[in-house]
Design brief:
The protein is of the alpha/beta class. It has one domain: NAD(P)-binding Rossmann-like Domain (Rossmann fold, 3-Layer(aba) Sandwich), CATH 3.40.50.720. It is 42% helix and 14% strand.
Amino acid sequence: MTGICDGRTAIVTGAGGGLGRAYALALAEHGANVMVVDINAETGQQTVDDIRSAGGQAELSLEDITSYESAGNIFKATMDAFGDVHAVVNNAGNNRDRMFTSLTEDDWDAVIAVHLKGHFCLSSHAAKYWRGKAKMGEEVSGRIINTSSGAGLLGSVGQSNYAAAKGGILTLTLNQAAELGRYGITANAVAPQGRTGMTEKVFADMMKPPEDGSFDVFDPANVAPLIVYLCSEKSAHVSGHCFESFGGKLSIANGWKTGTIKDKGARYDVAEIGQVVNELMNISPPAQPVYGS
C-alpha cells in the first residue's frame, strides 16, 4: 500500500470499532503502519486482521491509555514494531450520562480519565520523543489529533462529565499547538459525528444506514479522510484548529474570543455592574444553544 501516509506510523486509540476503526483502516489504506489500541481484544484484533488482509501493517495493544506507564508501553511497542512514530490519534472514549445532580464521583472520574487523561498520557510520550529528536537536529513531522465533540464546543444536557472532558481537550489542543510547534509538531482537534459504540444504542434508529442506498451521513468512514490528511506530512501548516466533520460537511469551529469591552478606566461599583452587564449582553452575539436545551 502507498499513499499520502506512506512510510509513516500512527497510533490510534479506540480502534476496535466505530470512528477509530475507520481511521485505522483508512490510514493503512493510505500507507501508514498502524498500532491499533483497544480494550477489546476481539474487535481490536479484527481491525488488525482486516488491515493485514488488505496488505497493510498493523499491531495490537491492549494497554490502558489512562495509565502513564501503560501509555509508555504502547509507545515503546510501536517503536519496536515499526521503528518510529509520526502520529497519535486520540480517539478512545466512554460515557456515563447523567443529569448533573445525579452524577457520582465515579461517573465523573471514569469519563475524565478516559477522555482527558487518556489524551494526555499518550501524547506526552510522543511529544517528549519528538522534542528529543528535534533537539538532536533531526527533522520532525509529528502529529497529534485529539477528539472533542459538539458537547465540548457547546455543552450537552445530561453529559456534564463528557462535555467538561471534551471542552478540556479543546484547550489542551490549543496549548499543544502553541508549545510544540517549535519542534515540528502540530496539534489539532476533531469534533466528529458518526456511529460509534457510544451512540449506537441511544441513537440507533436515527443513525441506522439508509435502506435506499443513499449517502450514509453517519458512516464513520466519512470522517477518516480528514484524519488521514492531518496525520500526513502535507498538513504541516495546519495546527491549533478544531474541525467539525459530519457526513460531507467540514468546518473549523470558532472558539471563545474576547468580545466588546466596556472600560470605565477605574473600578466598577457593585451598584453599576448590573447595567454594564446588561449592555454587554445586548451587544454580544448569543452563544449556540446547549445540546438538548
